[in-house]
Write a structure and sequence with these properties.
The complex is a heterotrimer. By secondary structure, chain A is mainly α. Chain A has 15 helices and 4 strands. In chain B, helix 1 runs antiparallel to helix 11. The chains are: A mainly alpha, B mainly alpha, C alpha/beta. Chains A and B meet through helix 6, helix 12 and helix 14 of A and helix 3, helix 4, helix 10 and helix 12 of B.
Chain lengths: 358, 291, 263
């Protein structure tokens, strides 16, 4: 055999391509344990902790959606608060028509997904800076339109009229569980999405859009799906907000601060990784709880830290962990195992450092 | 005929919007930076003016003499440090960093000043008056002055960019910063100059806004940023006169909206903005196409 | 041999993970016309751009006028006397012809070249000086780009693929300007895909293939067959011009097994 043919034969034998470095079953089991433990929380912890955790659920859901948009599809949206508000208002409207707020939540989420389609049509052709601003304008426009309807509270807001007649502890528990469900669904949904063919398209686009398009990847469709999914997720978070607060006020639910929270959580935790939003949400909650009494401080600190992370540690906290430990809780990439190499094989190639400077 | 008065008001306010917008347009045109903190910088200009006036007792109309250069220097420094660092990473990073800056500024103001609205007020008796044409039209001198200042600044900027040495460098760097480097130009310095101009003009606009209306810590993102963007988008990137036209159209749209219903003032503007974004993203005065 | 005005030692440049240049060395003496030839992707433009400062080398050094400039920023290199006419001309589209020249002259060193002198060399340019760069033909743009580099009064002029996209007669006319340029004391380092054109003007030649040097010497000392072999990487592509033989280093799989055995 010639030298060339020999190499080929060898590679067919020994090289392996796997999804993850360690058995992902362990991670799955760990996640399941955490979810079960959390589900038991209403029996264990007090209402105060439950409320905080529901807030965390909202932020985590929002963060994983924003991460999907910005970290994987390259869509920096500064207008996701539009979906948060829409989700909340869907719940309000449904509740006004005597639908239980718990049932209203999934309907609201889907409603936001539907609303996302015409919105995408409006903004899809715009380049990043324009896209960001357009999403912001859209959200503000929706706010202004909604404020014109006194039947849903006009400019001041409205409490949910038909809350279930349960004790506050039970209500809190139900809210907690549905919040847990939303978060798990969001994380699971993002994970499955990225593992699918869509995820492959997105990664290809992230690396080299022109090449991806010319190899047939349907980039526009992929981005639209991501936008709609993010709309559903943020809508669900907004619906959860309505359920947990029992009141919907336009300036609160449509506030651009929601974008600030989700963006900062993602940036600090690690943009473009699924684990990042989880870490980021933890950081956010810790900061919020410790700086609670200092009003605007936690946003100032959060903002400064996010800026610093964006510039100096692009892949955020999770990026730092990943670099040193090579751990992947949610495996969406591939590992190449080389029989000849020492150690545990090569890692998935990332974007690569640029050799050229400008 | 009430409409005529409002439309004239809208046109004049458009000058102010154009003044807000030109810095945004400059930063985007030269460094490809979408500065989401742009509106907040105007508000900072207003607050700094308040501080300067309180300390030096300088007349409100002259506060810009101190505030504008101060803000210009701030712009240069911020550009050379934070924004350049973000630019060196990626476009995404600059969006994130300017967004972060916006949030930090607003909350910083909320924390250290307070949430109330401020107005600079005007202490010159002549300016507070208005002149009338017939019985229906009444135009505030202040508004006229602001419009005149906006036009003068835009004219000056246009002249500076097209005739002066640095203006040429700014245009060259905006076209092709690598080729500019080959001609010995440090584009980071030129970026800094562009940022200084942007910060200076937006601070001036902020002071004008403070005299004409009132501002609060969140006015930057609530109101100003979207106005500035709308003016830029409607008028088209790359053309200062387009920005003026965009501002005027926005002002007129808002005036008409206010006529239809008091609370529809802003909504009308945003709808026009969205319409332009969808139908003609390059704006009404499209610049020569780049190949 | 006189002190080289430009010296590159063991330059290695990467684009991401791709090695574009692999331990390239060269020495350019003052007043020379040093031509770098090679096929597409050979690394010629990368070499020139790295010398101009637009790329950072992974290894190696660049010395200009005796000083190490490897870490010097491109604009500083330009103001010290290395001017590049980039591939594709790259005039500033929103500036007029004269404004393009004025930009080039912004940080000019003292010397014989002025905008006026450029107009003397290209008389047609004076009449079109207020036109936008985009309205000129390819050859005219090339002339403006050269003028823009010249008015800075450089000592070393880097020309990147002058002939690209231009008709042969236009290319010849532009290269015909070289004597005037050299007469003012400049040194020229040029990159050219058109080998015969390069051979016509060069006083020294270096051929690159996939980031490595395959030939080096004076045009008079190399045969057309040697050039062809070096250009395409055919067997028989040996060193020319009296240089000591060098090992080719790691091949990275770009040569067929047959070449490996025969080289």
């Amino acid at each position: 055999m010639t030298a060339v043919a020999e190499t080929t034969a060898r590679s067919a034998e020994k090289y392996r391509v796997t999804r993850s470095r360690r058995n992902v079953a362990w991670t799955g089991l760990g996640a399941l344990v955490i979810v079960v433990v959390l589900a038991l929380f209403p029996y264990i912890v007090g209402a105060g902790t439950e409320t905080i955790l529901v807030q965390a659920f909202i932020i985590l859901t929002l963060a994983s959606m924003w991460n999907l948009l910005a970290g994987y599809a390259g869509l920096v949206s500064v207008g996701q608060q539009g979906f948060v508000g829409l989700g909340a208002y869907f719940v309000l409207i449904l509740n006004i028509h005597n639908i239980s707020m718990f049932i209203a939540l999934p309907i609201a989420a889907i409603g936001c997904g539907v609303a996302a389609v015409p919105m995408w049509w409006l903004v899809s052709r715009l380049r990043s800076g324009y896209f960001a601003i357009a999403t912001w304008v859209l959200a503000t426009t929706i706010l202004l339109i909604i404020e014109k309807f006194p039947s849903i509270g006009g400019g001041t807001g409205l409490s949910l009229p038909h809350t279930p007649s349960l004790s506050s502890a039970v209500l809190e528990a139900y809210t907690f569980w549905i919040g847990l469900a939303v978060t798990v669904a969001a994380l699971l949904g993002v994970y499955l999405l990225l593992r699918s063919r869509l995820g492959l398209v997105l990664t290809a686009v992230r690396d080299d859009e022109v090449a991806a398009r010319s190899s047939g990847a349907r980039v526009g469709l992929a981005r639209m799906i991501v936008f709609v999914v993010a709309g559903i997720g943020c809508g669900a978070a907004g619906a959860l907000l309505a359920v947990s607060q029992l009141i919907v006020q336009p300036t609160a639910v449509f506030s651009v601060q929601w974008t600030a929270y989700m963006a900062f959580a993602v940036i600090i935790g690690g943009l473009g990784t699924i684990e990042g939003p989880i870490l980021g949400t933890i950081v956010y909650m810790v900061l919020q709880q410790t700086l609670q009494s200092y009003n605007a401080w936690y946003l100032i600190v959060l903002g400064l830290v996010a800026m610093a992370v964006a510039i100096f540690a692009r892949r955020g906290l999770w990026g730092l962990v990943d670099e040193h430990l090579h751990v992947r809780l949610f495996p969406v990439g591939y590992w190449l195992w080389d029989p000849g190499a020492r150690g545990n094989g090569f890692g998935r190639r990332r974007g690569g450092r640029r050799g050229a400077a400008t | 005929m009430v409409w005529v008065n409002d439309i004239i008001q809208g046109i004049l306010v458009g000058g102010l919007y154009a003044l807000f917008a030109c810095g945004l347009s400059l930063m985007f045109g030269v460094m490809k930076v979408v500065n989401l903190a742009h509106g907040d910088l105007a508000v900072i200009g207003g607050y700094v003016a308040v501080g300067v006036i309180t300390v030096t007792h300088i007349p409100v109309l002259w506060s810009f003499v101190i505030v504008v250069p101060l803000m210009a220097v701030l712009g240069y420094v911020l550009q050379r440090t934070v924004i350049q660092a973000a630019l060196d990473r990626s476009v995404l990073t600059t969006l994130l960093v300017t967004f972060g800056l916006s949030v930090v500024i607003e909350n910083g103001l909320l924390q250290f000043v307070n949430a109330n609205s401020h107005s600079l007020g005007v202490d010159n008796a002549i300016i507070t008056g208005a002149f009338s044409i017939g019985s229906q039209i009444s135009i505030a001198y202040l508004l006229l002055l602001i419009f005149a200042v906006a036009v003068v600044v835009l004219l000056g900027l246009q002249y500076y960019l097209s005739r002066s040495r640095y203006g040429r460098l700014i245009r060259a760097v905006a076209d092709d910063k690598e080729a500019a480097q080959l001609s010995g130009i440090d584009y980071r310095h030129v970026f800094g100059i562009a940022a200084a101009i942007a910060f200076g003009t937006v601070a001036l606009a902020g002071i004008a806004y403070g005299m004409y209306s009132q501002f609060a810590p969140t006015t930057g993102t609530d109101t100003i940023l979207l106005f500035a963007f709308a003016a830029v988008v409607i008028g088209g990137l790359g053309s200062l006169w387009g920005t003026l036209l965009g501002g005027v159209i926005l002002g007129v749209a808002q005036a008409i909206g206010a006529q239809i219903s008091g609370s529809d003032e802003f909504l009308a503007g945003y709808i026009v903005f969205l319409a332009v974004l969808v139908l003609r993203p390059q704006g009404l005065i499209a610049r020569r196409a780049q190949s | 041999m006189s002190e080289p005005i430009l010296e590159v030692r063991d330059l290695t440049v990467h684009h991401g993970q791709l090695r574009a240049l692999d331990r390239i060395s060269l020495r350019v003496s003052p007043g020379e016309v040093y031509a770098i030839i090679g096929a597409n992707g050979a690394g010629k433009s990368t070499l020139l751009r790295t010398i101009a400062g637009l790329h950072h080398p992974t290894e190696g050094s660049i010395r200009y006028d005796g000083k190490d400039v490897t870490r010097v920023r491109p604009e500083r290199r330009a103001t010290s006397g290395i001017a590049m006419v980039p591939e594709g001309r790259r005039l500033f589209p929103s500036l007029s012809v004269e404004e393009n020249l004025q930009v080039g002259a912004t940080y000019a060193r003292p010397g014989p070249w002025t905008i006026e002198r450029v107009y003397e060399m290209f008389p047609w340019m004076r009449d079109r000086r207020n036109q936008a760069g985009a309205q000129l033909s390819g050859g005219e743009q090339q002339s403006v780009a050269i003028g823009r580099a010249l008015v800075a009064n450089p000592r070393v002029l880097l020309l990147d693929e002058l002939s690209l996209g231009l008709a042969p007669v236009v290319v010849q006319r532009i290269y015909g300007m070289l004597p005037q340029i050299l007469a003012t004391g400049l040194t020229v380092l040029l990159v050219e895909q058109d080998v015969s054109q390069a051979l016509r003007v060069a006083s020294h030649l270096q051929c690159l293939l996939e980031g490595r040097t395959t030939l080096e010497g004076k045009p008079a000392d190399v045969t057309p067959e040697q050039v062809e072999a070096a250009y395409f990487g055919l067997p028989g592509g040996e060193r020319g011009g009296g240089q000591p033989p060098r090992t080719q280093g790691g091949s990275g799989g770009d040569r067929s097994p047959r070449d490996e055995r025969e080289a």
